[in-house]
Amino acid sequence: DQQVKQNSPSLSVQEGRISILNCDYTNSMFDYFLWYKKYPAEGPTFLISISSIKDKNEDGRFTVFLNKSAKHLSLHIVPSQPGDSAVYFCAASVQGGSEKLVFGKGTKLTVNP
Amino acid sequence: GAVVSQHPSWVICKSGTSVKIECRSLDFQATTMFWYRQFPKQSLMLMATSNEGSKATYEQGVEKDKFLINHASLTLSTLTVTSAHPEDSSFYICSARREAYSPLHFGNGTRLTVT
C-alpha cells in the first residue's frame, strides 16, 4: 500500500512557464513533507519542505503548497528552467521529520528550451 | 557542498561474493543513518535504519543477514551485501541528518551490478 503517491510519472513544460508537480498521501499521521530532486546515478537533493502547521512555503522559484484536508501537496516551480529537468520525489514523515521518510515514485520533469 | 559521502559510486561483482558500501557524514556527527534502495522507475525504499553503537533496525521484508549494517562511528555506516545475487543489483543510497528535525541529506548512491 503506497502511502505517498505521485500519479504523474512525467511532466513536460516550456522554459519560463510554471511546473506543477503533485503528490497525494494517505497517512493522516504525516506531519512533515519534503521535495527532493534527483538526477540519474546521483542521490536525491533536498529542495524544500513544509510542516503540517503551514499551508505554504516558498524558497526562490520553488513553492510548496499543502492541503491537509485533501491530503495533497504540490510543488510549483516558476519560472521553469532547463536545468530543472530531473526526477522529483515527494516524501513524508511523522513526528516532525525525526522518523523515516516515505517516498513517492517520482515525477520526471522535462523543461524544454 | 555535499554533506554525505558514499563510496564506491559503482561496483560490479560476481554472484556469491560480498560487497561493502561506505557512508560518511561530513563535518557532522550522525547517530542515525538510513539506507535506501531504488529499483528502476520506482521510489526509494527504506531498507534499514543504522544506529551508532547498536543494532540496525530493518524494514519488513529486508533480510538482516544478507544486508549487514555496521554503524561503527558517529560519521561512518557501512552496508555489506553478502553472497550477492543478480537480483541484488540495484541503486543503494544512504542518508543522514545534520540534526534532529532537519531534512535528510543523501549520498550520491552506489550502483551495484551482480553478474
Question: Brief overview, please?
Answer:
With 113 residues, chain A is mainly beta. Chain A contains no helices and eleven strands. Chain B is an all-beta fold and 115 residues long.
What does this structure look like?
The complex is a heterodimer of chains A (113) and B (115). With 113 residues, chain A is mostly beta strands. Chain A has strands spanning 4-5, 10-14, 19-25, 32-38, 45-51, 56-59, 62-67, 72-77, 86-93, 102-103, 107-112. Chain A contains no helices and 11 strands. In chain A, strands 2, 4, 5, 9, 10 and 11 form a 6-stranded mixed beta sheet that branches. Chain A has a 5-stranded antiparallel beta sheet with strand order 1-3-8-7-6, with no helix packed on it. In chain A, a hairpin with a 2-residue loop joins strand 6 and strand 7 (62-67). Chain A is globular. The model of chain A has no long low-confidence stretch (mean pLDDT 93). Chain B is an all-beta fold. Chain B has strands at 4-7, 10-13, 19-25, 32-38, 44-51, 57-58, 67-73, 76-81, 90-96, 105-106, 110-114. In chain B, the strands form 2 sheets. In chain B, strands 2, 4, 5, 6, 9, 10 and 11 form a 7-stranded mixed beta sheet that branches. In chain B, strands 1-3-8-7 form a 4-stranded antiparallel beta sheet, with no helix packed on it. Chain B starts with a strand and ends with a strand. The relative contact order of chain B is 0.33. At the A-B interface, strand 5 and strand 10 of A face strand 5, strand 9 and strand 10 of B.
Key phrases:
heterodimer; A: 113 residues; five-stranded antiparallel beta sheet; 53% strand; globular; B: 115 residues; four-stranded antiparallel beta sheet; 0% helix
Order of helices and strands of chain A: EEEEEEEEEEE
Strand content of chain A: over 45%
Number of strands of chain B: 11
Assembly state here? heterodimer
- Kindly state the mean pLDDT of chain A as a whole number? 93
Return the string of H and E elements of chain B. EEEEEEEEEEE
* SS-based class of chain A: mainly beta
Number of helices of chain A: 0
